[in-house]
Amino acid sequence: MVLPVILAAVRVTVFLVIAPPFNHRAIPGTVKAMLGVGLALALASSMTVPVEVTAATLIAMALSEAVTGAGLGVLVSLVFSAVQSAGRLIDMLGGFELGQALDPMTMTSSGPFGRFYQLIAVVLLFVSDGYQLVVGGLARSFDALPLGAMLDLGALAGQLTEGVSQLFLAAIQVAGPLIAVLFLADVGLGLLTRVAPALNAFALGFPLKILITLTLGSITLAALPGVVDWLTDQAIRGIGEVVR
């Protein structure tokens, strides 16, 4: 009984360290470890190790479980990176990129909208119980990929490739309306400069684009709950495709 719990805890804990929303630094490492062991105790009750265990075999199986947990965690993390990418697009086109700073919670540099959207996505995952679906997908991975089984790296690579395309698609879907408005504002400023060159319309560009971004930002914010639900479904589907 102890050995299945240890191996399951390795997979679950590595997954929780990498996959959102549990990878946020606001959640202490001790809590993640305790949660990983608790979930492993619940999942490993019906699990068995199919081989005779030696020290070398135990190390190999632990490494295999760590690779499996890391691969699934990276897949889920890539899917949910679309929300922060949408915020970064808004920062870049709205003139907020100059306010870029290091976020100590995620150890990434992004502008105000990038950080704000990432925090909103974490909150929505907890409020909508999306985190339960993510944990449920991890739990089902033990049925398709028992303890000691090696993750199909080819299938993982295929899902990661598809995940990158989904990341760009979701980011454009979230930030698309605001991007279109900012693009039209640039076009309008360019036409105004052609009509009245002495007006120096581009000097008004930065405050105008910031005003538009702050005014219409609620439009993209209203789309986030639906996008997070869709991304949760994509993450669960990706886990199922890798471990089937």
UniProtKB/TrEMBL annotation:
<feature type="transmembrane region" description="Helical">
    <location>
        <begin position="66"/>
        <end position="83"/>
    </location>
</feature>
<dbReference type="GO" id="GO:0005886">
    <property type="term" value="C:plasma membrane"/>
</dbReference>
<feature type="transmembrane region" description="Helical">
    <location>
        <begin position="6"/>
        <end position="23"/>
    </location>
</feature>
<dbReference type="InterPro" id="IPR002010">
    <property type="entry name" value="T3SS_IM_R"/>
</dbReference>
<keyword id="KW-0812">Transmembrane</keyword>
<protein>
    <submittedName>
        <fullName>Flagellar biosynthetic protein FliR</fullName>
    </submittedName>
</protein>
<feature type="transmembrane region" description="Helical">
    <location>
        <begin position="201"/>
        <end position="224"/>
    </location>
</feature>
<feature type="transmembrane region" description="Helical">
    <location>
        <begin position="35"/>
        <end position="60"/>
    </location>
</feature>
<keyword id="KW-0282">Flagellum</keyword>
<keyword id="KW-0472">Membrane</keyword>
<keyword id="KW-0966">Cell projection</keyword>
<feature type="transmembrane region" description="Helical">
    <location>
        <begin position="116"/>
        <end position="139"/>
    </location>
</feature>
<dbReference type="Pfam" id="PF01311">
    <property type="entry name" value="Bac_export_1"/>
</dbReference>
<comment type="similarity">
    <text>Belongs to the FliR/MopE/SpaR family.</text>
</comment>
<keyword id="KW-1003">Cell membrane</keyword>
<keyword id="KW-0969">Cilium</keyword>
<feature type="transmembrane region" description="Helical">
    <location>
        <begin position="167"/>
        <end position="189"/>
    </location>
</feature>
<keyword id="KW-1133">Transmembrane helix</keyword>
<dbReference type="GO" id="GO:0006605">
    <property type="term" value="P:protein targeting"/>
</dbReference>
